[in-house]
Amino acid sequence: MIAANLANLNSVAPAGTAPYHALRLISGPAGSFSDALAARNGKDHAGEVKVIGLEPVAGAERRVYDPTAPEAGPDGFVTFPLIDNTAEMALLIRTSRSYEANVTALGIAAQMDRQALEIGRG
Length: 122
What we know:
This protein is α+β, with helices and mostly antiparallel strands and about 120 residues long. About 40% of the residues lie in helices and about 20% in strands.
């Protein structure tokens, strides 16, 4: 969604239509608490996530006066989405770092499992 928001940063809404609105992904755990508890006890897979939906970010429109533009309304204004480029890039970096941290943690957990098996054999 971040890429879509950045791609539509300067998209122009045709006269009389609403501009693109930034979207946020809403996600949550795939199972219930009892599923998570069973997973913690080794009976199931843990950490599954499901997409709950997409939510438009509330915000105003950015209007630019350009009466020569074909997308301009009768008042001469062109409507653009109000998307904060800096905030979107910061969210992209934060999301990327979170993903990297999770991959590293999974790798370390797998390495610890292998070492525990080696200790058991020795």
